[in-house]
């Protein structure tokens, strides 16, 4: 019994490898590989030369990597009036704007909800918690009408403004600030520090993991978003890269040319890699935030 | 301006003589201004759209003429006269939600728990890989999988099956309705380990080790009991968050059928879900009022399922 306890205590989050862990690897590794497979395909396809894309049986890993597909990707759009770089620029610009604005208003609101006393506080947090269940695509029609009513049709702001209020972000940041002692904030207030000073010098430096997490969530919601390009913007020059990707796939349907497959893979890689890099850089902070994500 | 300043100074004097706790209530103005941007945007893009959708659902709005009030007509039509809804959109959504929502959730928990049993570095690498598909929402999801499910013999799945002599000629996986829904489910399961998965993993890693020790002294003898009596109760708050995220993602990814097949409606309506049903009526046929009624049903469905999840994970003490 005594010995068994020891093994158990090593069970969760072990420091060292031991034989009892082998059984987990036996199924974890196959599942992880299976998960990674489609992503490996895309990497491989993106760098395949044309003739290899045509080969039957298909080669899983290319032997002669080339950048042809990326060249073709920009050539495809060269046939149209708008170059690919324009879509990419729109995506980068609007995503950065969404990230900055989301972080700003989320921190300000979460700080109030966590460290201030006022009457509507619990009500507002409750409403936000309910909004975690909100599915934006379900209300695409009224959102269109509001964007229209605000005069944002065919404006770059249509990419940005509708995405800035992020309920999940507010929820996570508020929970994170809760774990930060009230006394420190109160002491600063008694010393006469203003809210912006407290936010800048005390709150923000202590909640960087939560901010990193919100940054990632905001990045994903904006970078992958088709809502604005599909519904709010008719001007081709203001659409984003995610939309450009759909033109590569949707118009040709399944009658895809083989060349199209390589171009799509190259485009997908451009969409995917920034997501992946951002997450790898920030993953330990995200995990730190997620331990505060509990709901009552 | 001066008046309000002297006013707030007066308030400040009053509260500083009170116990510490009430000092916080002094700065009413800043509470208002700090929260204003978020609250305004929240109301504009979340609350009002929901209210407008409810309002529109009682009209015959077609985006050109002024809407007429038609009472419950739209809802009656959906429930009695919309064969696409009853035959495809609703049953597909339920099948999709049960398998992808519930199945994906259980899979996420199981994978999170398994990852917590191994050392840090391999765990981190595997967690990143498992999480990465959830970053490929929308259009990426379809391009990634079109490589596998391409309808000609160069498609990876066709090539594999041809080689193994299981099929004689390539199958049109995506443009033939027969396989669309199962493929949508596979693809969505693949991408279901999102932030809910990370939350549960973080939660499991933070469970106090003394709890396990105490449990074993109290007579827990195997891993299964350990999960039921220690892990799940301790991680319950994160599990609820994970459940809500799973439900929302399931419905959010509703356009996957349209993205994979490249058409709305999907071939033979095989991949039609509530979300695509809304989009078809609203943005293909311009029946905005009708589409709004479907979206209200969708929101109610999400809300009801979330409430069930909350009941399930509520503190039972």
CATH domain class of the largest domain in chain B: Mainly Alpha
Count of individual helical segments of chain A: 15
> What multimeric state do the chains show?
heterodimer
Mean pLDDT of chain A: 86
The best one-word shape of chain B is globular
CA-based gyration radius of chain A:
24 Å
What is the CATH T-level topology of the largest domain in chain A? MetI-like fold
Description:
The complex is a heterodimer of chains A (296) and B (317). Chain A contains 15 helices and no strands. The longest helix of chain A has 33 residues, at 258-290. Chain A has two domains: 1-37, no CATH class; 87-290, MetI-like fold. Chain A has 296 residues and is mainly α. Chain A has helices at 2-11, 22-46, 50-54, 68-78, 84-115, 121-131, 140-149, 157-160, 167-178, 182-190, 195-206, 208-223, 227-232, 241-250, 258-290. The radius of gyration of chain A is 24 Å and the shape is globular. Chain B contains 15 helices and no strands. By secondary structure, chain B is mainly α. Classes of the chains: A mainly alpha (296), B mainly alpha (317). At the A-B interface, helix 1, helix 2, helix 5, helix 6 and helix 7 of A face helix 2, helix 3, helix 5, helix 6 and helix 7 of B.
